[in-house]
C-alpha cells in the first residue's frame, strides 16, 4: 500500500483527501504545517507528499525546496487554487514532481500520485542497478555490502588518485592481492604494469636479484644483465606479498629504495631511478614483529602510510551468501551444469560456518558443491563435510553434563572469534576489548589455528 503525506492548513481539505484517497487504496497521514511534515518524513515511510501551495508559516514552495534538499527520493505534488502558469513554473523550479490546480477532479490527483509513485520506484530501481553494476565491477573476493567491506571500499575510493604506499593486512585468504590489483586498476597508473612478488617464496640471494636486478657476472649464473621487478613495474604498481618474511638485509635495502626512490642492481656501481607505486601485504602482525625486533620499525612506518585491514569472512555477515552465489554461478558456467542457486538449508549452513580459510575456502567449497550437485540447487549434501557438520556454538555453557563441557582453551577460542566478529575483524579493537596487546592476540590466534 502506497503511503501519502497530505500537508494543508485547511482541516476540512485534509479530512476530505484522507477519506477519498483512503478509499482508493492509499494509506494517508495528514499534517497542517510544513515543520510537522518534515518531522513526519524522518522515519522514511512516505512515498509521495501532497502539499497545498498557500499555507500559514512555511509555504508549499518552501516545503518543496526543503524536501528536495533533505529527502530528494520523495516526490512532491503541489495543489493550489491559483492555477496560473507562473505558479506552476515556480512549483516545478522548487523541485515539485507535478502540479494540480484547484478545483481538481479526484481522478486527476490519483493519476498524478500514481505517476509520482512509479517515478520513485523507477529511480530506486536505477539506483539498485547502479549498485549492482558497481558490485560486478569490483574484484570478486571484494564483493559484498557489509559494514566492514563498505569501510574498505570507501578507503580504496579515497586513495584512488594517490601514489601513497599502501599496507594491506588480513588473514590468509581474505583477498589481499585482490585489493592490491583493485588499487592499481583504480589509479592513474592503471595503464602501467602490475607486478606481484611473494617475499616468502624465494631464498634471500635470489630475492634480492628478483627485486633489484643484477648486472652480468654479478654471481655465478648471471650470464646477462637483468632488470629487477622494481624497474619492470615502472609506471605501474609493485605488490610485495608476505612482506613480514623479508630477510633483515633486504629490509634495509627496501627501506633505502623507498626513501631515495632508486635501487642499485646486484653487482652494479650505479643506481636506477624508480617510478612505481608500492603496495605491501602480510597476514602477520607487523607491530608485534617490530616490538620483537624481527622487522625494522623505520621500514614499517614507510610502508604503513595507508593501512587497509581486510576483515575475515566470518565478520562479513551476509556477504558470505553474496560471494557463494557468485562463485556458484561462475563454477556452473565453467562446468556447463544447470546449477542456479542455493537451497535454503545449504545457505543456512554456509552462513553458520566460520570460514577459517576465508574467501579462498568459500570459493573452493562452491566449486566442489557444483561439481557434485545433482539438481538445480546446491543442497546440504553437496557441501563439504566440515561445512555440513559444523554446529554454531555459543560461548556460554549451560547444564552439568560432562559430555557437554569443553576445555578452557576452547572457551577462549570461541570468545576470541566472537569478539573478532563483533568488531568486524579489526584485530586492534579486538585486542583492546579482550584486554591484551595485538601481539598476544596474534599468538593466540595462531595457536588456535594449529589445533586440530
Q: Key terms for this structure?
A:
452 residues; alpha/beta; 16 strands; 13% strand; five-stranded parallel beta sheet; 4 domains; Helicase, Ruva Protein, domain 3; Rossmann fold
Which residues sit in consecutive blocks of at least 5 with pLDDT less than 50?
Answer: 133-137
Strand order of the largest sheet: 2-1-3-4-5
- Biggest sheet: strands, sense, closure? 5 strands, parallel
CATH architecture of the largest domain: 3-Layer(aba) Sandwich
CATH class call of the largest domain = Alpha Beta
- What is the radius of gyration? 30 Å
User: How many helices in DSSP terms?
Assistant: 19
Beta-strand residue fraction: 5-15%
Domain count, please report it. Answer: 4
Structural class: alpha/beta
pLDDT averaged residue by residue = 83
Number of strands: 16
Q: Percent helix among the residues?
A: 40-55%
Name the overall outline. elongated
Q: What is the CATH superfamily label of the largest domain? A: P-loop containing nucleotide triphosphate hydrolases
Span of the ends, CA to CA: 55 Å
Q: Assign the CATH topology of the largest domain.
A: Rossmann fold
Helix and strand layout, with pairings?
Blueprint: E1 3-7, H1 11-23, E2 27-31, H2 34-41, E3 48-52, H3 60-70, E4 76-80, H4 85-93, E5 98-101, H5 106-137, H6 147-158, E6 166-169, H7 176-185, E7 194-198, H8 204-212, E8 213-214, E9 226-227, H9 229-232, E10 237-241, H10 248-260, E11 262-263, E12 272-273, E13 277-282, H11 286-291, H12 297-303, E14 306-309, H13 319-335, E15 341-342, H14 344-352, H15 358-372, E16 377-378, H16 385-388, H17 408-422, H18 427-434, H19 438-450
Parallel strand pairs: 1-2, 1-3, 3-4, 4-5, 6-13, 6-14, 7-10, 10-13, 15-16
Antiparallel strand pairs: 8-9, 11-12
Amino acid at each position: 500500500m502506497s503511503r501519502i503525506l497530505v500537508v494543508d492548513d485547511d482541516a476540512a481539505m485534509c479530512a476530505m483527501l484522507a477519506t477519498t484517497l483512503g478509499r482508493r487504496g492509499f494509506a494517508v497521514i495528514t499534517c497542517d504545517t510544513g515543520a510537522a511534515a518534515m518531522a513526519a518524513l524522518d522515519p522514511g515511510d512516505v512515498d509521495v507528499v501532497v502539499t497545498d501551495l498557500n499555507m500559514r508559516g512555511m509555504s508549499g514552495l518552501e516545503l518543496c525546496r526543503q524536501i528536495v534538499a533533505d529527502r530528494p527520493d520523495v516526490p512532491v505534488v503541489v495543489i493550489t487554487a491559483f492555477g496560473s502558469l507562473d505558479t506552476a513554473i515556480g512549483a516545478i523550479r522548487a523541485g515539485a514532481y507535478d502540479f494540480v490546480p484547484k478545483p481538481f477532479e479526484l481522478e486527476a490527483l490519483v493519476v498524478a500520485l500514481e505517476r509520482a509513485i512509479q517515478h520513485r520506484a523507477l529511480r530506486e530501481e536505477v539506483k539498485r542497478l547502479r549498485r549492482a553494476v558497481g558490485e560486478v565491477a569490483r574484484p570478486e573476493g571484494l564483493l559484498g555490502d557489509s559494514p566492514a567491506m563498505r569501510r574498505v571500499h570507501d578507503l580504496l575510493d579515497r586513495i584512488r588518485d594517490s601514489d601513497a604506499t599502501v599496507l594491506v593486512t588480513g588473514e590468509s585468504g581474505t583477498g589481499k592481492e585482490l585489493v592490491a590489483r583493485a588499487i592499481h586498476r583504480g589509479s592513474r597508473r592503471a595503464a602501467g604494469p602490475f607486478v606481484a612478488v611473494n617475499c616468502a617464496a624465494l631464498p634471500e640471494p635470489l630475492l634480492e636479484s628478483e627485486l633489484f636486478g643484477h648486472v652480468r657476472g654479478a654471481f655465478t649464473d648471471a650470464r646477462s644483465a637483468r632488470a629487477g621487478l622494481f624497474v619492470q613495474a615502472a609506471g605501474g604498481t609493485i605488490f610485495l606479498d608476505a612482506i613480514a618474511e623479508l630477510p633483515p638485509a633486504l629490509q634495509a635495502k627496501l627501506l633505502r629504495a623507498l626513501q631515495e626512490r632508486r635501487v642499485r642492481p646486484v653487482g652494479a656501481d650505479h643506481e636506477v631511478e624508480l617510478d612505481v607505486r608500492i603496495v605491501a601485504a602480510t597476514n602477520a602482525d607487523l607491530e608485534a614483529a617490530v616490538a620483537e625486533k624481527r622487522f625494522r620499525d623505520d621500514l614499517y612506518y614507510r610502508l604503513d602510510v595507508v593501512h587497509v585491514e581486510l576483515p575475515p569472512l566470518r565478520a562479513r555477515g551476509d556477504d558470505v551468501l553474496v560471494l557463494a552465489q557468485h562463485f556458484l554461478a561462475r563454477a556452473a558456467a565453467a562446468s556447463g551444469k544447470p546449477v542456479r542457486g542455493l537451497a535454503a538449508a545449504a545457505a543456512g549452513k554456509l552462513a553458520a560456518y566460520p570460514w577459517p580459510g576465508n574467501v579462498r575456502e568459500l570459493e573452493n567449497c562452491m566449486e566442489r558443491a557444483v561439481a557434485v550437485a545433482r539438481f538445480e540447487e546446491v543442497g546440504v549434501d553437496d557441501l563439504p563435510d566440515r561445512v555440513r557438520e559444523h554446529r554454531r556454538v555459543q560461548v556460554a555453557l549451560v547444564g552439568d553434563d560432562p559430555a557437554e563441557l569443553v576445555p578452557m582453551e576452547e572457551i577462549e577460542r570461541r570468545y576470541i572469534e566472537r569478539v573478532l566478529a563483533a568488531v568486524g575483524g579489526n584485530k586492534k579493537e579486538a585486542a583492546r576489548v579482550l584486554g591484551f596487546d595485538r601481539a598476544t592476540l596474534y599468538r593466540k590466534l595462531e595457536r588456535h589455528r594449529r589445533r586440530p
